[in-house]
Each structure stands twice: as structure tokens, then as C-alpha cells.
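User: My notes are a mess, but here's the protein and NAP's SMILES. Can you give me a structure?
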Amino acid sequence: MKPDYTRLAFGPPPADRPYVLLNMVTSIDGKAVVEGSEKGLGSKTDQRLMRELRTNADVILNGAGTLRASGTSPRLGGDAALEQLRLEAGKPRCPTAAVISRSGNLPLDATFFRARDFDAMVYLSEAATAEARRAIIAAGRPVVGVPAEHEVQVALAHMRLEMGADVLLCEGGPDLNGQLFAIDAVDEFFLTLGPVVVSGRDSKTPVEGDSPFARDTLPRFSLVSCVANDETSEVYLRYRRAREG
Ligand SMILES: NC(=O)c1ccc[n+]([C@@H]2O[C@H](COP(=O)([O-])OP(=O)(O)OC[C@H]3O[C@@H](n4cnc5c(N)ncnc54)[C@H](OP(=O)(O)O)[C@@H]3O)[C@@H](O)[C@H]2O)c1
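Assistant: No problem, the inputs look usable. Here's the predicted complex:
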């Protein structure tokens, strides 16, 4: 059994950022990476759910580490029915892909840069060199400069205010996720538990970085749905941020 993530209802986006969904897959011991990427953690059903979630999004965001490790794309896997859902909702066939980077050290021969069947853009910290910026622009994707130390907030504001994005789907990785939680910008967390154990002291969990939280300031989430799949032994969790007031 699997949930249906194609036509989800969300609350309204705040004024200064889109409504933010986060989607990750982990092992049952809570690890998000095996042998350098997420490959092997999720089944084909999990990948299907990722594409269903994309159907709802205006922008798909990744940290540059994920682009370097796994490549990223906002495609719906050539699924005409999913694309049709988007078109009926007045959205383009594919969400816009976005990557955020401080260094500007990006794989310029990756699909993200070479493909022309989807729009893509790079949020580049002003800490990056002019040379890195020029190389990215020459690779054919627009660059939006974002001030050092406030890159994520400014990128989210750009999506909402300049692009009119209502829904952002962040597909990791752990470093970027940690910053989104730190500024309380995750509205929903979609988590697939895969039936494997990775272990390893240095294996990343879905959310990394310095924690700004104490026991009484932990961000709390309410369970929206929980579906167990007897065939894959995966569990698909959907949580929504429970904000006070
Ligand atoms: N299990 C899953 O569902 C899943 C999902 C996604 C990724 N992953 C895995 O996660 C691993 C990558 O982890 P990660 O934590 O390194 O990935 P990440 O969050 O994708 O990338 C980190 C990089 O993003 C950029 N970045 C982050 N915060 C920024 C900011 N405030 N301003 C500007 N740039 C910023 C920096 O890029 P620069 O270094 O270019 O400055 C930083 O090094 C990979 O192995 C990938 O396969 C797993």
C-alpha cells in the first residue's frame, strides 16, 4: 500500500517564503547516506512518491552537495498523468529546479545544467568568486546572488516574491535541511523509512549541522499520515509543523 501524494492540500504560504515541504528517505537506523549517496535506501515506490510530491511544487531545491553526489532534476519521470495534473493546475510541466551553493563549485556537465526540458537556477552566495559565478552563467543557468550568512532566507524570499512560488519542495541534503529547520522554515516533512540498517559513526542523518534547539524549543510536528507498505516493508510518514498560536 502507498499513500497518494499527487493532489495534496497545503496551508497558505507565508509572505516572505513559499510553503516548504521536505522529502527524505532514511534507513531504519536513521541514516540518509550509504556509500556517498541515498541510492539503495528507497524502493521504486519511494521514488514514485518523490515524483508525486514534485507534482505539487513550484520549485525543487537541493544543496550543492546533493547535486555533486547524486545529480538532481525536477522531472516527473516522463509520467504524462502527473504532468497533466500540473498543467490542469496552471503550472508548467516541470517545477523549476534550484540549487544553493557557497563555493560555486558545481558539476557544470550535469543534467541540471545541460537539460533544456526544465528551468533551473542557482542561488550563489556572494562569498563565491566572480570566476565561479561566470562559469555557472556560461553553463546556461541564471545565477541569483544571495548575501553570505543569510543565503537560505534570501533564496526563499526570492522564490516567493520574485518568482511567485507558493510551494517549495526541498529534496535535501542534510546540511541544507539543518538550516531550514534552524530558521523554522519547514512546514511539512515527508519521510520514508527504508527497511535497512546503514550504521557508521560518520553516516549522515537527514538533518545535520549545529543544532540551535534545546529540549523546550524543539520544533514539534503533528502526524498527518502514516502508511505501511507490506510489499516493500517501507513506512511513509507525513508530518506537519505544529506552530503555537
Ligand atoms: N536520503 C535522502 O533522502 C537524501 C536526500 C538528499 C541528499 N542525500 C545525500 O546527502 C549527501 C549530501 O549531504 P550534504 O549535507 O553535503 O548536502 P547538501 O545539503 O545537499 O549540500 C551542502 C552544500 O549546499 C550548499 N549550501 C548549504 N547551505 C548553504 C547556504 N546557507 N548558502 C549557500 N550554500 C549552501 C553548500 O555548497 P558548496 O559546498 O557548493 O558551497 C554546502 O556544502 C549526499 O550523499 C546525498 O546523496 C540524501
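The helical segments are 44-54, 64-70, 80-88, 111-114, 130-138, 151-161, 174-182.
User: Great, I'll file this with my notes.
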